[in-house]
Amino acid sequence: MDSTERYTRWINNLTPGQLLTQVFTSYGPTVIMPTWFCSREWFCHVGKFDEGGKGVPEDLLFFYEHIRKGGGVFRVDQCLLQYRYHPQAATHSVLEETIWNHRVRFLEDRALKHWRSFTIWNAGKQGRKLYRSLSPANQKKVAAFCDVDENKIAKGFYTYQESKERRKPQIPIQHFRDATPPFIICVKLDLTGGGFEENLATLDLKEGLDYYHFN
Known about the structure:
Strand 5 (183-185), helix 9 (195-202) and strand 6 (211-213) form a beta-alpha-beta unit. The protein has nine helices and six strands. It has a six-stranded mixed beta sheet with strand order 3-4-2-1-5-6. The protein is of the alpha/beta class. The longest helix has 15 residues, at 96-110.
């Protein structure tokens, strides 16, 4: 299954509540951008699009500012238009790292500032990258990483070697069943044959309260 197929399934099957809780994922806005509509008054209130030029993710930034100012997200479940996607589209000029940095700052602003501590679900590459990208204050809130990979768990902890502190931080790595919520989940949805989703369901947690997806 390719990423476009997974994205299509994700964007079309979000529940009304997930239109707001899943705004942190790598997929971006939870309503496909070319179909957005709102009042002119609200558009001007949010602040219009950032016309900084090539490489600026103006739709993502507008969406984030819309959320910050209390905007809701709703989906009309019928075909409104056809969108032609082509290789020369401006979206291809936006660097992945630029989007990543905006996503991390938005996560910190909207979720992490309300938590005293949290667990990063994924002791692998993506989870460690998120940890390294956090502000020092939010790094200190990370109680543990959690995973299902016995090899990662057996290591016991992750050492943040890039830290400027004399004593390098060591963050425990636990099995997900032993970890304490809330979680920031750095595992991609719809990619493990349902294994991850089943594991998450066994914990009986509430999305938007006990965890957010940041896959």
